[in-house]
Design brief:
alpha+beta, Bifunctional nuclease domain
Length: about 170
């Protein structure tokens, strides 16, 4: 395990600042915050994925298990523990993530869309991280902002509304 940690790249602890629905593009933006440096990272996701994250955040009980609840139930029944999720890459206009699992002392990394990883993370209450290289790539594209740059939540919303996917490529799930 110590060797795995040594080769792991630098990751930044994140938390969900909020979800914003963009009716013009029929998409949702999950806004992640680096609480230490107060950097804000938006990730465009689909409206259904945004809803899945919101349901998990609000701990809404649905009459039947939704997809991410099913994932949680399967992992619980197979005694697999989610330890963290990490947004690992921003490549060709697409964000990538990994779900870290621990099963019988064995560590596994499962490729996932960031939206699915985050929806699962809020249900199992594990930390969300982002690779520093993703933060740097987002900064180069003008996607990353300092929270101190915004006076109020409305300023954040206005900034997000001004961002156009055509300006820097369409970020896919």
């Amino acid at each position: 395990m110590a060797q795995e940690m040594a080769k792991e790249e630098h990751i930044v602890s994140m938390r969900i600042l909020g979800l914003i629905f963009d009716p013009n593009l029929n998409t949702t933006v999950v806004v992640l915050l680096d609480p230490k440096q107060e950097r804000v990272l938006p990730i465009w996701i689909g409206p259904m994925e945004g809803n899945a994250i919101a349901i998990g955040m609000e701990k809404v009980n649905t009459p039947r298990p939704m997809t991410h609840d099913l994932m949680k139930n399967l992992l619980d029944n197979f005694q697999a523990e989610v330890t963290k999720v990490v947004v690992t890459e921003l490549k060709d206009d697409t964000f990538y993530a990994v779900i870290h699992l621990s099963i019988d002392g064995k560590e596994l990394e499962i490729d996932a869309r960031p939206s699915d990883a985050i929806a699962l993370a809020v249900r199992v209450e594990v930390p969300i991280y982002c690779a520093e290289k993703v933060m740097e790539a987002a900064a180069d594209l003008g996607l990353l902002k300092q929270r101190s740059d915004f006076d109020e939540n409305e300023d954040l919303k206005k900034w997000l509304e001004r961002l156009k996917p055509d300006d820097f490529g369409k970020y896919k799930m």
